[in-house]
Each structure stands twice: as structure tokens, then as C-alpha cells.
Amino acid sequence: MSDPGEVHVRLPAALVPLFPDAPRLLTLRAGSVAELMSGLEERWPGMRACLCDETPAVRRHINVFVAGRRAKLDTPLAPGADVYILTAVSGG
Fold this sequence. Notes:
Elements: E1 6-10, E2 25-29, H1 33-43, H2 47-51, E3 62-66, E4 69-70, E5 82-87
Parallel strand pairs: 1-5
Antiparallel strand pairs: 1-2, 3-4, 3-5
């Protein structure tokens, strides 16, 4: 993979109580969603476990969107991409 570019990441409000020093909007270098998760883990240990399971995959109650499409860990990220990490909403 080529040198990853900077991407813009929006984190869910649900992470604020767990990682109070993490901003809701940040920029980091990543060439894929998996690299993005590793970058988040490097800055805030334990964050990857909140977002990914041990298989590894994005947890069922977490949605990652890149360019308006749902993404998986192997989804590539173009430089300047906007990545939204959202918690799933359910109920009746």
C-alpha cells in the first residue's frame, strides 16, 4: 500500500465518557479503516476494542461510513476522506 494520507474522522458521542480527551472530530493518517482503527488505538488505548471485535471486524452495533457507504476494516481510504463512526440505533 502507498503512503497513507490524512483522513477526517468523526467519532460517536458514546465514546466521550470512555475517552474524555478524544475530540469528536480529528484528522489522522490511514490508508484503510483497519489502519484508522490502529491509529485510534495508538492515541487512545482501548478504543479499538470498543469499535472492533476479536475476529477482527467492526462491532455489530458500530457503523463506519466512508463516502456515504458502509465500510469494513479492509475498506481503503483515499487522502482527505471523511469517515463517520456511528453507534447503531435500535428499539421499537
